[in-house]
Amino acid sequence: MSDAEAETIDEKPRELDQQKIEFIEAQKMFFVGTAPASLDGHVNISPKGMDSLRVLGPTTIAYLDVTGSGVETISHLKENGRLVMMFCAFEGKPLTLRLHGRGEVIETHNPEFSELIELFPELPGIRSIIRLNIDRVADSCGWTVPLYEFAGTRDYYDKYAEHIGVEGMRAGQLKSNMTSIDGMVGLDKPSV
Q1: Which of 56, 72, 113, 131 is the right S-S partner for 44, CB 3.0 to 4.6 Å?
Q2: Alpha helices, DSSP H only, in the chain?
Q3: Residues 180 and 70: beta-carbon distance below 8 Å
Q4: Confidence of residue 6 (pLDDT cuts 50, 70, 90)
Q5: What is the DSSP letter of 119?
Q6: In the predicted model, what is the mean pLDDT of the chain?
């Protein structure tokens, strides 16, 4: 096989069409994957939900990043920018969709944050917006992904955030969101 033939076979769209945008917007959960440049660093995959995702255009997608037990996605993006987002059809017709590209961390003190936050719901403990500039859209059959029925959104995070309050969120960020498990830079400063 020639190099030209190989490139044609692997060539994938670089932007979302309306059908894929509608599929993404219908999902209740998605996954993000990142990795450090170091071969001995930890790869990270995180599930996301809470109505935190917005399609900004055919080549751009973003989600709200809230305070958590770690900061791997932020750390990896600050180091190398590589990000993949994956969506799976758990209901209806099977489909798995991956969006590859360059991710950006837009922390709460970034001037661009105040423009973008208007697109999202109000959630406790927001620490950044993660924006993906898509350079590859890849779908696959998803035939082996099981069928699930959406039963609702869990309220554990909201109750936890209310229970510990702003000072508790800030303490949590200072404890586990300033550096990654591999010692990489996390948040510039606490967001709450």
Answers
A1: 72
A2: 3-10, 18-26, 72-80, 111-116, 156-176
A3: yes
A4: very low
A5: G
A6: 94
> How far is the C-alpha of 118 from the C-alpha of 103, rounded, in Å?
20
Q: What is the pLDDT of residues 93-134, one digit of tens each?
A: 999 999 999 999 999 999 999 999 999 999 999 999 999 999
- What is the CATH number assigned to the segment(s) 10-176? 2.30.110.10
Rounded Cα gap, residues 146 and 101, in angstroms: 27
Q: How many Å apart are CA 104 and CA 131, to the nearest integer? A: 5
pLDDT at 184 over 70: yes
Q: What residue spans define the domains of the chain?
A: 10-176
The angle at the Cα of 132, spanning 131 to 138, to the nearest 5 degrees, equals 155
From residue 53, give the alpha-carbon distance in Å to each of 20, 65, 81. 14, 10, 19
The residues near 107 (Cβ < 8 Å, ≥ 6 apart) are: 113, 127, 128, 187, 188, 189, 191
- Is the CB of residue 76 less than 8 Å from the CB of residue 180? yes
**Cα torsion angle, 37, 178, 43, 47, sign:** negative
**pLDDT tens per residue, range 68-100:** 999 999 999 999 999 999 999 999 999 999 999
Predicted local distance difference test score (pLDDT) of residue 10: 57
Residue 109 tokens, joined? 């003190």
